[in-house]
Write a structure and sequence with these properties.
- The complex is a heterodimer of chains A (283) and B (271).
- With 283 residues, chain A is an alpha/beta fold.
- Chain A is 38% helix and 20% strand.
- Chain A has a six-stranded mixed beta sheet with strand order 6-7-8-3-9-10, with helices on both faces. In chain A, strands 2-1-4-5 form a four-stranded antiparallel beta sheet, covered by helices on one side.
- In chain A, helix 3 crosses helix 4, helix 3 runs parallel beside helix 5 and helix 4 crosses helix 5.
- Chain B has a two-stranded antiparallel sheet with strand order 1-2.
- Chain B has two domains: 181 residues, no CATH class; 77 residues, no CATH class.
- Chain B is globular.
- Chain B contains ten helices and two strands, in the order αααααββααααα.
- With 271 residues, chain B is mostly helical.
- The chains are: A alpha/beta (283), B mainly alpha (271).
- The structure holds adenosine-5'-triphosphate and magnesium ion.
- The site of adenosine-5'-triphosphate has 12 residues of chain A, from helix 1.
- Magnesium ion binds next to helix 1 of chain A.
């Protein structure tokens, strides 16, 4: 896979502050990859996300998005066309007074013809199950519904990469699953690069790559199976274990010789069955 | 408490008037107001009033609401009727001291009242049947020619859209802040005017702060979605003139000409 986003030793501090909020970030996100960023509150995840579409630019170091340097003013528009960012707070992201017009806002900015916008808006609203609300005023929607509209607004722009900054935090479990499904489908079928910032471990285990941040640095990155079974790193970064790892971990602490390599419930159950039947682990 | 304030007075529906193109509606309202300007005698004002009543009927909106909308200026109406009563020349039909009331005075005060009522009804028809967003869109579209003289119509329209979008948000926020201050013991219904104004400060300060914060956030979100005010945008919604719009325009031209002819005719005494 070719590289899509290159982050080279990026440091960043907000104006008027002395501490580096991003303190030497180095990583690469490949085209079509599904990356999850985890970390405790205030570790700099949202700040990093804003760097990915040139809303913020680094104080030191460079970010290249599809080969474009985000520090150069002339690349900004092109970068924002490629990378759609859905922000944390849905309230102030909605621009227009009607749901469908808000979803159309992005495509209108991209100068897409009217009938094509219509199609995209309808599809995006259907994907987040908000089609029936298309004529409603956004202020009459619930928090989760506003988040869905914000997601639809970015989907309709069809960017090459979508960055979701805790964009599903207000959705009910069913809604979260639906949005995740939509995003995964885009990832699979249209090779859209996905960067997901979340506090939900069950979303993270579906990723191709997991990045764990702590105090403005990348603490570790790797495949979910490597990361989520490394109990010490997770606990160190203030993260929860997945339920299955938690269970296996506790059993292991009691002296049962289990491997921690299981990620989901099914694998966990298999691991325990195998152990009970006295067989060796499969992973 | 403030949440009940409905923005604009749009009442959704699908009457003929609702279906008219908002641009046509705005232009027609303007033409109607001009027609009223020409309606100087009973006959012409009756023609206008009847047609306004017909439109009100077509809009399928309860008459109660129209009547309610005249309440705001009832005082103004009485005042102008009263003043007009004494401005008239000719035979006085009523005289107390130096005050005299003439036939003409009576006529002009009746005309003035009818005119004001018609004016309110026409603007109510527009406001009741057109959503604020449609009005914004129509204004944008009608202002397009101004782009030739370097007016950034797109930006003005964007500002109107955002203002409309945030009014309910701010009302809601004011409500929240008031409740929050009340729960801390603030009083907003003090008898003394000065105290009352002072009590507004703890509402306005947080409201302003939050407005600026929201503005920053919104600017960020607009940036994220590639907004560039100097660039031409396309629009998803396009307005189309349909058959009813053409009927409406023809109807209005006929009415306008009719009113002018009527106003030239000798006054037919009705009273
Ligand atoms: N506009 C700002 N000006 C100054 N400091 C800021 C600003 N925004 C964030 N910070 C600081 O930067 C740090 C990282 O914030 P950031 O929003 O990136 O955290 P986060 O990882 O997204 O946390 P969360 O999980 O709560 O969303 C915090 O310590 C915060 O105080
Ligand atoms: Mg954040």
């Amino acid at each position: 896979m070719e590289s899509f986003i290159n982050i080279n030793n990026v440091k960043f501090k907000y104006e008027g502050s002395d501490t580096f909020i991003l303190d030497g970030i180095n990583t690469e996100i490949k085209k079509g990859e599904f990356t999850v960023i985890l970390g405790r509150n205030g570790c700099g995840k949202s700040t990093l996300a804003k760097h990915l579409n040139a809303i913020l630019t680094s104080s030191e170091g460079n970010i290249f998005i599809d080969g474009l340097n985000s520090s150069e003013e002339k690349n900004v528009y092109e970068i924002r066309k490629k990378v759609g960012l859905i922000l944390q707070n849905p309230d102030n992201q909605i621009v227009a007074g009607v749901v469908e017009e808000d979803v159309a806002f992005g495509p209108e900015n991209l100068c897409i013809p009217a009938d094509e916008i219509r199609k995209r808006v309808d599809n995006a609203l259907k994907a987040v199950r908000m089609y029936e609300y298309k004529d409603k005023a956004p202020y009459k929607l619930s928090g989760g519904q506003k988040q869905r509209v914000a997601i639809a607004g970015v989907l309709a722009m069809k960017p090459e990469c979508i960055v979701l900054d805790e964009a599903t935090s207000m959705l009910d479990p069913e809604g979260r699953e639906e949005v995740m499904e939509t995003i995964l489908r885009l990832n699979r079928e249209q090779n859209t690069t996905i960067v997901l910032i979340t506090h939900y471990m069950d979303e993270a285990i579906m990723a191709d790559k997991v990045i764990i941040m702590d105090k403005g640095k990348i603490k570790t990155e790797g495949k979910p199976r490597e990361i989520f079974t490394d109990v010490s790193i997770l606990k160190d970064s203030g993260l929860a274990l997945t339920q299955s790892t938690e269970l296996l971990y506790k059993l292991k602490k009691r002296g049962y010789n289990l491997s921690l390599k299981a990620l989901n419930e099914e694998e966990c159950a298999k691991e325990i069955i195998n152990f009970l039947e006295g067989k060796e682990c499969l992973y | 408490m403030l949440g009940n304030i409905v923005l604009g007075q749009y009442i959704p529906g699908n009457s003929l008037i609702h279906k008219l193109d908002p641009r046509v509606k705005i232009l027609l309202s303007i033409v109607y107001m001009m027609a009223l300007f020409f309606a100087w005698n009973y006959l012409s004002i009756i023609v206008v009033t009847l047609s306004v009543l017909a439109l009100m009927f077509l809009s399928k909106i309860p008459v109660k609401l129209y009547i309610k909308s005249t309440k705001v200026i009832i005082l103004f109406m009485i005042l102008s009727a009263f003043l007009n009563l004494f401005y008239g020349e000719g035979e006085p039909i009523f005289k107390i001291g130096f005050i005299s009331i003439t036939q003409q005075g009576i006529q002009s005060s009746i005309l003035v009242v009818l005119r004001i009522i018609d004016l309110i009804f026409i603007s109510s028809i527009l406001m009741f049947t057109t959503s604020p967003n449609d009005i914004t869109f129509a204004i944008e579209s009608l202002m397009k020619p101004l782009e030739k003289i370097k007016v950034n119509v797109q930006e003005i329209a964007m500002m109107m859209t955002i203002a409309l979008r945030f009014i309910p948000t701010f009302l809601e926020e004011t409500d929240k802040i008031m409740s929050a201050q009340k729960s801390r013991g603030a009083k907003f219904n003090d008898k003394s005017m000065i105290k009352r104004i002072k009590s507004l400060i703890p509402i306005l300060m947080p409201l302003f702060i939050s407005a600026f914060r929201r503005a920053c956030d919104l600017a960020l979100a607009m940036d994220c979605r590639c907004y560039d005010s100097s660039k031409r945008r396309t629009r998803m919604k396009t307005l189309k003139i349909g058959r009813i719009d053409i009927f409406a325009i023809i109807f209005l031209i006929v009415l306008f000409v009719g009113v002018i002819i009527c106003s030239k005719m000798k006054n037919i005494a009705i009273i």
